């Protein structure tokens, strides 16, 4: 019987949502019958001292088996691992990558081009892409291997349903709050927005805030799985860039193909979301009636004013049901079934 293995990731526990996404993926893979393969990552010294352990791990793989890896893989191991991929594929083993990020579309320290990434993906036997928008971009860029759409990232956590109250016309922003990542929350133009905004995350630079009407309330920094205990009600906002008018800059453009992990976090606690009207998440949000889409943050007051409590309760109930799927690992589990 052919087996599906996954390559164990190396991540330290912290407040980073990306590490949670990768650790959640491992747990879901195990739940779906995948077996762990350990290449002993955790620093260059450990990696090279573990050569023989790694060789023994590779012997577990048989022709016809599949190895799931999480991409991006670690740059400092990539050359060695690239050779391993070719070795495994020559022995009849399929290698499929779950994409967390497309590196060339984000501001990384060591930028690479789309052509570089296409070359990497072309050495695989399959890819799990975020959504149909990312898949379209990959195909148009020259990727020819089979691609499976994830839809949205799962979010494993304890059951925590948000309280539904009639004081819901406020927004929550969670994530990296440094000015280079979330410049829009520091802009003077935010003075014109009356809606209360609660902030959660690392890097908030209060002294750089240019709006002074005190509609920003910094709550604090919490581990991803604990955020839901601190968010009381309202909507979760998914926005990036340097403008209130649209999601701008490199990170804003990335929303056109990306599944932000914070979307899954909000929905996992039953919180409706607000997304940019040109974002990749818009289709899923509107089709499932789990939030709203806007063109500009300058619309937020009027948009929320026109949402009745009955409408909000309907969206929140849909989010509660949708959140159950996310907490159960439904979406990655469905993708793994397609690979089998």
Automatic annotation (TrEMBL):
Pfam families the UniProt entry points to:
Gtf3_C (PF26337), Gtf3_N (PF26334)
For this protein, the record's InterPro entries field holds: Gtf3_C, Gtf3_N
Protein's UniProt name: Beta-1,6-galactofuranosyltransferase
Domain Glucosyltransferase 3-like N-terminal spans what residues? 8-152
Species of the source: Clostridium thermobutyricum
* Keywords for the protein's UniProt record, in alphabetical order: Transferase
User: Residue ranges of the Glucosyltransferase 3-like C-terminal domain?
Assistant: 171-338
């Amino acid at each position: 019987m052919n087996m599906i293995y996954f390559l164990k990731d190396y991540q330290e526990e912290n407040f980073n949502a990306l590490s949670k996404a990768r650790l959640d993926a491992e747990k879901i893979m195990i739940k779906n019958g995948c077996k762990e393969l350990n290449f002993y990552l955790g620093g260059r010294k450990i990696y090279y001292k573990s050569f023989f352990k790694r060789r023994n791990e590779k012997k577990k793989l048989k022709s016809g088996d599949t190895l799931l890896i999480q991409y991006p893989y670690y740059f400092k191991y990539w050359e060695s691992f690239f050779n391993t991929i070719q070795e495994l594929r020559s022995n009849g083993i399929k290698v499929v990558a779950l994409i967390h990020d497309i590196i060339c579309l984000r501001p990384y320290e060591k930028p690479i081009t789309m052509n570089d990434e296409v070359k990497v993906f072309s050495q695989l036997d399959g890819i799990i892409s975020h959504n149909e928008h990312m898949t379209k971009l990959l195909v148009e860029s020259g990727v020819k291997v089979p691609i499976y759409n994830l839809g949205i990232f799962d979010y494993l956590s304890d059951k925590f349903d948000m309280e539904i109250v009639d004081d819901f016309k406020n927004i929550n922003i969670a994530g990296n709050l440094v000015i280079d990542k979330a410049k829009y929350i520091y802009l003077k133009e935010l003075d014109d927005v009356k809606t209360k905004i609660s902030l959660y995350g690392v890097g908030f630079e209060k002294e750089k805030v240019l709006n002074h009407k005190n509609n920003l309330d910094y709550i604090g920094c919490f581990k991803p799985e604990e955020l839901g205990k601190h968010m009381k009600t309202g909507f979760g906002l998914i926005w990036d860039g340097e403008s209130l008018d649209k999601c701008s800059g490199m990170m804003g453009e990335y929303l056109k193909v990306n599944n932000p992990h914070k979307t899954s976090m909000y929905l996992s606690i039953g919180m409706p979301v607000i997304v940019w009207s040109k974002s990749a998440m818009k289709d899923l949000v509107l089709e499932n009636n789990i939030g709203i889409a806007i063109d500009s943050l300058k619309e937020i007051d009027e948009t929320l004013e026109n949402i009745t409590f009955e409408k909000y309760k309907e969206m929140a109930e849909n989010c509660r049901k949708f959140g159950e799927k996310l907490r159960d690992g439904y979406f990655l589990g469905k993708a793994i079934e397609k690979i089998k």
